[in-house]
Amino acid sequence: MNYEEALSYIENTQKFGSILGLERIAKLLEMMGNPQKKLKFIHVAGTNGKGSTCAFMQSVLTQAGYKVGMYTSPSFLRFTDRIRIGKEEMDEDRMAEIMTRIKYNIEEMVLSGLQSPTEFEIITALGLVYFYEENCDLVILEVGLGGRLDSTNVIEAPLVSVITPIDYDHMDILGSTLEEIAGEKAGILKAGSELVLYPQKKEAEKVILKKAEELQIPVHKVSFRDSRVLKFDGLYQKFSYEGEEYRLSILGEHQIKNALVAIEALYALEKHGFRVPHESLVRGLSVAKWPGRFEILQIEPTVIIDGAHNLQGVQVLKSNLMKYYRGKKITIILGVLKDKMYREMIRELLPLAKNFKLITVNNVRALPAEAISEEIRKVEEEIHEESAAKAASQKKKRKKEFDFEEVSYVRKECFATVEEAVDSALNESEPDDIICALGSLYYIPEVHRYFGEED
């Protein structure tokens, strides 16, 4: 197969759906020589912040001279950018060569009466074979969905497990409570490893710590008390941690916390022989890149893209926008999937919005732009009714006059394409205005390409 044929083969396996379980991936890897058993791993699970944390760790370890593979999902600009060694993404010809072998083994599996692996399982196998054959010193492996039954969990005990912030997402698969979701994420924990843990909500953290205790896994809970933001200028941010200063080009105050998780994971890794000089730590953090996360694509007007696609992600984005662009009303480009908590996300965004440019994400699970517009209207009505009820309550209790403020309904426009939405936002903006595109990583790369950002 050539690259295009290999890519088409992978995409056609979408018909098998996203079926959780490790039997298919384990069998496929066995037929490929079990490359995962010959590699060392950092395994990263969580709802938000996984990719950024992986990027920080890989950048630092690469600066320290190690050959480090990184497997993330989904792809951003190109299929091959999800499988990297150092700064280089997987070569297309190499991908096609490995996929030819994988396809042969899948055909053998099906002939013997076994289920065909799913799309994500095939891509996971592709990455693991590639990292092994390229003699990586270490692989940073990001969980695709959940943890316990995710195909990345086919590995044996990693050197370090990392769990980033956990919140409500994929509830139809992972469970409707934080305890259930945390239990799925904690499924990556294995005896013989150790855990670096982002501070979690109490109910999630209790589940994770119990699992770690059962497995007798050392836990390194990250503390943010010794960190302080020093500077943000729209191009980079500086912070201090334990008396040392660091600089990040990945923006957003939450990224400082992700960087601290990465630092603690690298400290935990040192006992396994992966020494990281301080200058490599400083340099690696400063040059790390992770596209589509509070990324500024241009100024005058300022255009920001952010992959926030769940409630926690939107709350973090809102906090950053309020901190860095205080008092500014923002043109919001929005596309979402219908299985997300989109009404709660809209409620968070409304106080910031000057207007909405709405698109339908190119995905079978997309909520149509017209439906998003209607949901925004419904949320505005809810806010109006809540405000009116509060005013009536204050009046009834004969308290001082309640300042009832009529809801200011924002303009909502629907567009057939992402390009049309961006064109409209730019045409209506003044140089000091802010435009922010968010809601789904399935369309954010199109905004990236609009501005000629290909790397």
TrEMBL record:
Keywords: ATP-binding, Coiled coil, Ligase, Magnesium, Metal-binding, Nucleotide-binding
InterPro entries: Folylpolyglutamate_synth, Folylpolyglutamate_synth_CS, Mur-like_cat_sf, Mur_ligase_C, Mur_ligase_C_dom_sf, Mur_ligase_cen
GO cellular component, one term: cytoplasm
Chain ranges of the Mur ligase central domain: 44-265
Parts forming coiled coils: 369-396
Reactions catalysed, as given in the entry: (6S)-5,6,7,8-tetrahydrofolyl-(gamma-L-Glu)(n) + L-glutamate + ATP = (6S)-5,6,7,8-tetrahydrofolyl-(gamma-L-Glu)(n+1) + ADP + phosphate + H(+)
Cited Pfam families: Mur_ligase_C, Mur_ligase_M
Entry annotated with the keyword Nucleotide-binding: yes
Superkingdom assignment: Bacteria
Listed EC numbers: 6.3.2.17
Mur ligase C-terminal domain segment(s): 292-440
GO MF annotation terms: ATP binding; dihydrofolate synthase activity; metal ion binding; tetrahydrofolylpolyglutamate synthase activity
Keyword Cell cycle annotated: no
Cofactor(s) the protein needs: Mg(2+)
PROSITE patterns: FOLYLPOLYGLU_SYNT_1, FOLYLPOLYGLU_SYNT_2
NCBIfam families attached to this UniProt entry: folC
PANTHER family linked: DIHYDROFOLATE SYNTHETASE-RELATED, FOLYLPOLYGLUTAMATE SYNTHASE-RELATED
Entry protein name: tetrahydrofolate synthase
